[in-house]
Structures are given as structure tokens and as C-alpha cells.
Design brief:
Layout: H1 2-25, H2 35-65, H3 74-85, H4 89-92, H5 95-123, H6 131-160, H7 172-183
Helix pairs in contact: 1-2, 2-5, 5-6
């Protein structure tokens, strides 16, 4: 499920980001996006990709974290979730914290990527960096944003797993309170 989701999620995110950056910067003298443009374009790209591919992420989490024997595969998981939890709701449970985290996460990631790219290319304006350089820039920008946003990703996973590990449905606020009361700050 991770591989199945990765293709469309990344494609949507990169396409929306590039289109929005171009739109935002078309009337700028340098024709280059500002830091704010990069953040907003990245945030919008992350939200768009997340909403479209979120059900695949829910299935990935359920299949990976459910006790053995709960589901025999993807289609069995879909069938059982629809039969016991609702036709659409279980596939979007946890979307709220996911979107709350994806806005700053994608925004920070794409903004960091653009800034690191400017810094590195700025040192060698006549030489295009190689693929390894771009991979390092992408990896560092993802490390930066994901480290900051991990607590919300953890809350998303806990909400997604409701109905399997915990039959009682809880909202975001209750999940935050319960995590803090049982595990303290390190729970995040």
C-alpha cells in the first residue's frame, strides 16, 4: 500500500507545487517564487495530495498495524471496514490531524527545498547540480519538516487505528488528552 500510494501522492504533490509556484511568481521581477510562495504552494500541494490519497494511507496503516489475521488483504480490509465502520468514514478517519500537519509539513519541506537549492546553485551559478545534490537537498528538507511535524503524524495514526485496536471512537482533542495523560510529552 505504501508503494501504491507513493506514486499518485508524489505526482500530485509535485505537479500542484510546480503549477502554483509558476502562478505565484509569474508577475515577480525575478520570475522566481518567494519563500512565502514556496511555502503556500507546498502546503496546497500537500493538502491536495493528502485528501486524494488518504484512503490508501488508511489502508496501509490498517494492514500494517492490525493484529495478524484481522484482514487477509486490501480488498478484505475494505469490505470489513465498510461493513462494520461505515462506507466512507473509516477511510477518512484521522484526516483532520493529517491536514493540520501536512500544511506546515509540505510548506516547510518545499520552502526548505527551494532555499537549499538557491544556496547551492547560488554558489555555482553556471553549473547545474547533479542528481545526487538534488537528492541530498530533498532528503534534508524532508528530514527538517518531518521532524517538526511528527507529533501530528502520530495522532493521525492513532485515529486511523480506531476500530481495530480500540473499539471506542475518539476525536482529535480526546486523543491528544489521552496521549498526554497516559504518556506525557514524550508520547508525542
Amino acid at each position: 500500500m505504501t508503494v501504491i500510494r507513493a506514486g499518485p501522492e508524489t505526482s500530485i504533490k509535485l505537479t500542484v507545487n510546480e503549477k502554483l509556484k509558476a502562478l505565484f511568481s509569474q508577475n515577480r521581477p525575478s520570475n522566481k517564487p518567494t519563500k512565502a510562495d514556496s511555502f503556500i504552494a507546498g502546503a496546497c500541494a500537500g493538502v491536495t495530495a493528502n485528501i486524494i490519497t488518504f484512503p490508501l494511507g488508511v489502508l496501509r496503516t490498517r494492514l500494517a498495524a492490525s493484529p495478524p489475521g484481522t484482514y487477509s488483504g486490501v480488498f478484505d480490509a475494505i469490505k470489513k471496514m465498510r461493513a462494520t465502520e461505515g462506507k466512507i468514514t473509516p477511510f477518512y478517519r484521522g484526516l483532520q490531524p493529517a491536514l493540520i500537519s501536512v500544511i506546515p509539513n509540505s510548506g516547510l519541506q518545499f520552502m526548505a527545498y527551494e532555499n537549499l537549492k538557491r544556496i547551492i546553485i547560488g554558489k555555482q551559478p553556471h553549473k547545474e547540480p547533479g542528481p545526487f545534490t538534488f537528492m541530498c537537498i530533498g532528503g534534508l528538507s524532508a528530514l527538517f519538516s518531518n521532524t517538526l511535524m511528527y507529533p501530528l503524524q502520530m495522532l493521525t495514526s492513532r485515529l486511523v487505528m480506531q476500530g481495530v485496536l480500540d473499539k471506542k471512537k475518539k476525536g482529535l482533542t480526546q486523543t491528544i488528552q489521552e496521549t498526554f495523560s497516559k504518556e506525557g510529552p514524550q508520547g508525542f
